[in-house]
Write a structure and sequence with these properties.
2 domains, binds glutathione, alpha/beta, globular, five-stranded mixed sheet, Glutathione S-transferase Yfyf (Class Pi), Chain A, domain 2, Glutaredoxin
Length: 267
């Protein structure tokens, strides 16, 4: 069987979920990172038009989109070490928490980060340049075009310019931190006494807020985002995310990072 291939976006927290699951299970794999924007064409191509988001995992001849489906497939194919609890009631709860953080936190975190970033041209440029292939990033007109593309794309696709949506995103992130802390109580983990998919999901999706060193490398936080996160640093939920990354985010088992530009893959 060929090695699994993870198609991903380096800075993205939904993508970090899939990378973390692969690392946890020590699955050797290859990684490919097309330029964001172009990634939607790749996703549509690989899934025959069914999905347009990354992460996407090619595993045993199948193209699996969505971080939740990817973790489910990895759990079946590489059961050890498990991310799902064995006990059926605990498993249900872990999957419910995964869904809660996916639906109620993930997109809001992205929206707020982009909302604050698009107010700061220097950060947008730095961010865009990090995403471009090296040879292109050095060309002034390409940088300028890509920076404009980033602002337009995130504005149209995610509505990041809206102050009302940003306000909702702040409320949703705070509600997710509240829920995290109340679910944890005095325990170390969300479900039972072991690290599960629930912990992995909450920690990955809060990653952009906490910016732990073990997580993806991110451009400097925009000023508005920094103002939002600063008072949260003393919260138990924030410290818990730091601890999850420190204890459980093993380095990648990726054998290879293959830079892929806008080309559509074969197969
Ligand atoms: N629920 C999906 C969300 C993934 C997602 O939103 N990925 C973004 C990057 S962070 C993407 O590919 N966006 C393209 C689009 O929304 O069309 C998952 O868990 O994988």
């Amino acid at each position: 069987m060929p090695q699994p291939v993870l198609w991903h976006i380096e800075i993205s927290h939904f993508n970090e979920k899939a990378r973390w699951a692969l690392a946890h299970k020590r699955v050797e794999h290859e990684r490919r990172a097309p330029t964001p924007g172009a990634h939607m064409v790749v996703a549509l191509w690989l899934t025959r038009g069914r999905h347009k988001t990354f992460p996407l995992l090619q595993l045993d001849g199948q193209a699996i989109a969505d971080s939740t489906a990817i973790i489910a497939a990895l759990e079946r194919r590489f059961p050890e070490p498990p991310l799902y609890p064995e006990d059926p009631a605990e498993r249900r709860r872990a999957l419910e928490l995964e869904e809660f953080f996916d639906e109620e936190l993930g997109a809001h975190m992205r929206l707020l980060a982009f909302h604050e970033a698009t107010k700061d041209p220097a950060i947008v440029e730095r961010f865009t340049v990090d995403l471009l292939p090296r040879a292109l990033a050095d060309l002034g007109p390409v940088r300028a075009g890509a920076t404009r593309f980033f602002s337009t794309f995130t504005g149209l696709r995610y509505g990041v310019k809206s102050d009302r949506r940003a306000e909702l995103a702040r409320a949703k992130i705070l509600a997710a931190v509240d829920r995290l802390e109340s679910e944890l109580g005095s325990g170390d983990y969300l479900v039972g006494d072991r690290f599960t998919v629930a912990d992995l999901t909450a920690a990955s999706l809060l990653g952009p807020l906490v910016r732990p060193p073990e997580g993806p490398s991110l451009p400097p936080a925009p000023e508005g985002f920094e103002r939002f996160r600063a008072p949260l640093k003393e919260r138990p939920g924030y410290k818990w995310v730091e601890e999850m990354f420190r204890k459980h985010r093993k380095p990648a088992g990726a054998s290879d990072e293959v830079a892929v530009d806008a080309e559509v893959p074969a197969g």
